[in-house]
Write a structure and sequence with these properties.
With 1015 residues, the chain is mainly alpha-helical. 66% of the residues lie in helices and 4% in strands.
């Protein structure tokens, strides 16, 4: 996508814990989501395990995860569905009753459930004589427990009886036994559980599920060795439920509240809850906003582990909580007193209890909310004292934190220590450091703080050596750099009130230009400001300033390729050259390149982009550099140069990070990385890019663009519930951005996806409405890039109306009219470049279908083959697979069975490789109906899931097995080293191993990457 446009409205007072403090108590009526979000993969593992049990094999799944991550919910949803399908479900939970709870508690609960249904006699009748006697130890309903002199023998009998019971129950159909919260299991429960799982080899039709809190499993926890042992059994799968990624966390918020969350709300929730569903629920109040305070129950949950620590350790944790999410060892030592080993010693219990996680030279709280809960517990005086201490120590030893951070963190602590003069001075100094480090958002926060404190410090200007106007100007500039448009406009307007155009015309002109550009992005018409600015800097006064205003003028004109824009950009280029202002030259050349592209000459545009980026690099003009990255990748993508497009955008993201624009321009560039990856069928990679970008809390428009791509992936994969939700949220997000109403780069893909979604759900008439509305509302011819896909989808909608819809005269007529319109548009639409060619051929094949006679069928076949060949050329496998399927249909219609079978096999291979499930299904149906063989692989159905690993994790594991490091894996798979490490952790958890070496060994043992035997 091009023309980055962003709106960020975030209520500024909503920062951190302040928001969570101060209201309603006991508001524990937590709302939850009506649907399970983001656990498709894990459901898949459970389903596969149940299938194995159904087929008579042994099968058990061990599910770990932190408290609230959704273990019970996942299991409940799964067992409910299985029960619906006729399975018998026995559930029992372990209770938190100290180390040795009630013996066999979960099994007693299972029996109780069974007795409720069958009666005690009914249960006993299932067992051979002497019936259910041993169960009397667990449940009084079974009578008096017999006295058995030998405890070991009694135990063995009980175990056998439980096994027999499951065996008998399974004779009637699949049985699921669920043992929840096994971290609380007493020894007897652990032993019986292990016995049953080990015995599964002789136990047909039973699936056992064990859940446990992995964060509770400290090093010496007795469940640990047991899990490790069980995991070695071939039929046992172990999986770790991870926190939800940003995409699903946002979806969960929307599901809980029943509406698309405001971006700031989504950000706040994600920042605090970090993707833990329970925490997400807890943070949301009953009106769908942000709860005022951590609820008592959540606080108890968070602090449970903390409260069990020695007092000295708790004291240290309190100090650490004032230092932030993470504290360095040396700093913490200086603040708290005990140094070196003493500190480590004092904190060891917190590490053992999983409250703190040690990292390079410091400690981080395991979850942000734990820190928050500890911090909230501090008394006000204690807080002031701690922050003062942090500030003083950082004042004398700034090197205690990362380079460049000392001044900034010091400012933070002075502010929270309520020392106003120091807070002001240190904020100003820190703002300068942040500005130099291109940390614009931080710089903006600090400058806003200077302005906030200004009136409370009588000689503020003297203390910092700068005027109020100067601070306002800098704040406007920082806001622009940070893409905080509304705040920037406010600062620029305030500055304009204080500045004098007669005395300083250039200064005022540049302020007006700044406000204009902020306004352009923020949805305010920039024309008046630019006109006023141009009058203040007539030719001859200040060439560099005039050139800058002219570039902005060229960017802002209504008709982007009209003569006025070209004139303005050309004058700007001449003036900037004269003034030796290389940065503005770069901007002017970039603008001229876009004008070429709009006028249809992409080759010229690409040449000029190269010039512009060389100039920008020379001048260190990073805005222009990123502008080029956005537009060059867009143009390349349009030309079908997907690899290059992704590469250019990816390089742009790296620069955006360097320039402190990761959240804004960086996330827009992520759209331009993901878009070609989606086209290339590299959906896992695209998803990684999207997730990473969403985790940065992008502005609304960027978020919408990213969601549209995620929706496209979900749709292609056949995850219709996901795609439906994503499309809905993207639509809402776009609808709120008023100035975008005509922005076809968002609306045309949205309409196309909506229509595809309707088609996939069999709602043909709705699809017809969607396409008709889009064609009426937008000028598709102005945007062939996104116009073509809508045309092809529209043609499909019109030509595949089912008989029932066609019987309705109105619908049939509307389809006829629409198809006519689409044909007219297609005839006029630009077809330069192979992607548009491929679309045109697809459209011709789709829309040109004649009556079903043989010669027409042959023509259709030729058209689909041509379309497929072109999609092949631009390496778009999903479109290729679809076109190949259609050509197979056409071959059938033309009576060429062998040709049809060949094409169908190709389509099946492509669809399976992609994981395009609906397409695979459609192919399989055609094959079955036409009695065409697809080859053993496909006829056997989808490949079994591999140990619960996703396709991406499987790739990562293969590299781990080859001995690659995280950065190397990152480089190879085009993901960050951090993402690679997240995948690796998840793999280790799923494989139940604790090191990469063990993971590699497991992969070897399981022959995961052995070369396939020659066919
Ligand atoms: N994937 C999910 N989608 C929707 N809601 C979820 C999901 N996972 C958990 N929840 C909700 O979060 C809360 C905590 O989940 P729960 O299953 O009780 O966690 P755990 O058993 O891991 O401690 C519950 O209210 C549950 O309904
Ligand atoms: Mg639970």
């Amino acid at each position: 996508m091009q023309r980055e446009a962003t709106l960020t409205a975030r209520p500024s007072a909503l920062a951190g814990t302040a928001m969570l403090s101060g209201i309603l108590e006991g508001m524990s009526a937590r709302m939850s989501s009506p649907v399970l979000v983001g656990r498709g993969d894990h459901m898949g593992v459970l389903e596969a395990a149940l299938d194995r049990a159904r087929a008579g094999g042994p099968s058990a799944v061990l599910i770990g995860g932190e408290a609230g991550i959704g273990k019970s919910r996942l299991v409940n949803e799964f067992t409910a569905a299985a029960a619906e399908a006729g399975a018998r479900v026995l559930v029992g939970g372990c209770l938190d009753l100290g180390t040795e709870g009630v013996p066999f508690a979960p099994f007693a609960a299972m029996l109780r459930g069974l007795v409720r249904e069958l009666g005690a006699d009914g249960v006993a009748a299932l067992l051979p004589a002497p019936g259910a006697r041993e169960f009397a130890r667990l449940l009084p309903e079974f009578g008096e427990a017999g006295i058995e002199a030998n405890a070991t023998v009694a135990r063995a009998r009980l175990f056998e009886q439980m096994l027999t019971l499951l065996e008998r129950l399974a004779e009637a159909g699949p049985v699921m036994a669920v043992i929840e919260d096994a971290h609380w299991a007493d020894r007897s429960t652990r032993e019986l559980t292990a016995f049953l799982i080990r015995s599964q080899q002789i136990l047909d039709g039973v699936m056992i599920i064990v859940s446990y809190r992995s964060d509770d499993l400290h090093r010496t926890h007795p469940l640990r060795p047991l899990l490790a042992e069980l995991d070695r059994l071939a039929w046992v799968e172990r999986m770790e439920l991870p926190r939800l990624g940003r995409l699903h966390a946002d979806e969960l918020v929307a599901r809980i509240t029943g509406r698309e969350p405001e971006p700031w709300l989504a950000d706040e929730v994600y920042r605090h809850a970090e993707g833990n569903p329970l925490f997400i629920e807890e943070l949301l109040s009953s009106d769908g906003g942000l709860g005022a305070e951590l609820s008592e129950s959540l606080r108890d949950l968070l602090l449970a582990a903390v409260r069990q620590l020695p007092e000295q350790t708790q004291e240290l944790l309190r100090a650490a909580s004032a230092g932030g999410q993470r504290s360095g060892h040396a700093l913490l030592a200086a603040v708290t007193g005990p140094a070196g080993d003493d500190l480590a010693h004092g904190l060891r219990p917190a590490v053992a209890a999983n409250v703190l996680v040690p990292d390079d030279g410091g400690y981080a709280f395991r979850h942000a909310l734990i820190r928050e809960a500890v911090y909230d517990d501090l008394l006000p005086g204690e807080r002031t004292r701690l922050h003062t201490r942090f500030a003083q120590i950082l004042g004398s030893e700034p090197g205690m934190v990362a380079p460049g951070r000392g001044v900034i963190e010091q400012a933070h602590h002075w502010y929270h220590a309520h020392d106003i003069p120091w807070a002001l001075v240190s904020a100003w100094q820190a703002a300068e450091v942040a500005g130099q480090a291109l940390a614009h958002a931080e710089q903006l926060t600090l400058l806003a703080r200077v302005l906030e404190l200004w009136d409370k410090v009588p000689d503020a200007a003297n203390r910092i050596g700068a005027s109020h106007l100067r601070v306002l100007e800098q704040a406007a500039t920082a806001a622009h750099a940070a893409d905080e448009y509304e705040r920037g406009i406010a600062f620029a307007s305030a500055a304009l009130k204080e500045a004098d155009p007669a005395a300083e015309p250039v200064r005022v002109a540049l302020l007006l230009e700044k406000r204009a550009m902020l306004g352009k992005h923020g949805g305010v018409d920039p024309t008046a400001d630019l006109r006023a600015a141009l009058e203040l800097v007539p030719a001859g006064l200040d060439d560099a300033a005039r050139a800058r205003v002219l570039v902005s003028e060229a960017k802002s004109l209504d008709s982007p390729c009209g003569p006025e824009a070209r004139l303005a950009a050309e004058e700007a280029l001449t003036l900037a050259r004269q003034a030796g202002d290389v940065g503005t030259q770069a901007a002017a050349v970039g603008e001229l390149a876009m004008i070429e592209s709009f006028s249809g000459d992409d080759a010229a545009a690409l040449r000029m982009f190269a010039q512009a980026s060389a100039l920008a690099r020379q001048a260190g003009a990073y805005r222009s550099l990123l502008f080029v990255a956005v537009n060059e990748s867009h143009v390349l993508g349009g030309l079908g140069e997907h690899e290059r497009a992704a590469h250019v955008a990816r390089t742009g993201i790296a620069s955006a990070h360097e320039y402190g624009l990761a959240r804004s321009t960086g996330t827009f560039l992520a759209i331009n990385v993901a878009e070609p990856l989606v086209a290339l069928g590299r959906w896992d990679e695209a998803t990684d890019v999207i997730e990473q970008a969403l985790a940065l809390s992008p502005p609304r428009v960027n978020r919408a663009g990213l969601r549209l791509l995620a929706a496209a992936i979900a749709l292609c994969r056949g995850d219709l519930a996901d795609s439906r939700a994503l499309i809905a949220t993207a639509r809402t997000a776009l609808g709120r951005v008023s100035f975008l109403h005509s922005d076809t780069q968002f609306y045309l893909p949205l309409a196309q996806l909506e229509a595809e979604q309707c088609l996939s759900e069999g709602r043909q008439a709705d699809a017809l409405d969607v396409v008709t509305a889009a064609v009426d509302r937008f000028d598709l011819l102005r945007d062939p890039r996104y116009g073509w896909p809508l045309l092809t989808t529209g043609a499909r909608v019109c030509t595949t109306l089912p008989a029932a819809a066609l019987r309705d005269r109105g619908t049939a007529e509307r389809a006829g009219v629409l198809l006519g319109q689409l044909r007219t548009l297609a005839a006029k639409m630009d077809v330069s470049g192979p992607v548009r060619q491929a679309s045109r051929l697809t459209f011709a094949a789709e829309a040109g279908a004649g009556p079903p006679n043989t010669s027409a069928a042959e023509e259709t076949l030729a058209r689909w083959d041509a379309a497929a060949a072109t999609w092949d050329r631009v390496a778009q496998p999903y479109q290729l697979a679809t076109a190949t399927l259609r050509s197979a249909e056409a071959a059938m219609a033309a009576g060429d069975r062998e040709g049809a079978a060949q094409r169908l096999r190709r389509a099946a291979d492509l669809a399976d490789q992609l994981g395009a499930r609906l397409l695979s299904k459609e192919i399989a149906v055609l094959a079955r109906n036409a009695r065409l063989a697809l080859g053993t692989d496909h006829d056997a159905g989808p490949a079994p899931r591999r140990l619960g690993l996703t396709a991406r994790e499987f790739e990562v594991l293969s590299l781990v097995t080859a001995g690659r490091s995280n950065p190397e894996i990152g480089a190879e798979l085009f993901i960050s080293a951090k993402t690679a490490s997240v995948h690796v952790s998840s793999i280790l958890a799923k494989l139940g191993v604790s090191s990469r070496g063990e993971a590699a060994a497991a992969a070897h043992r399981l022959h995961l990457f052995d070369p396939a035997p020659a066919a």
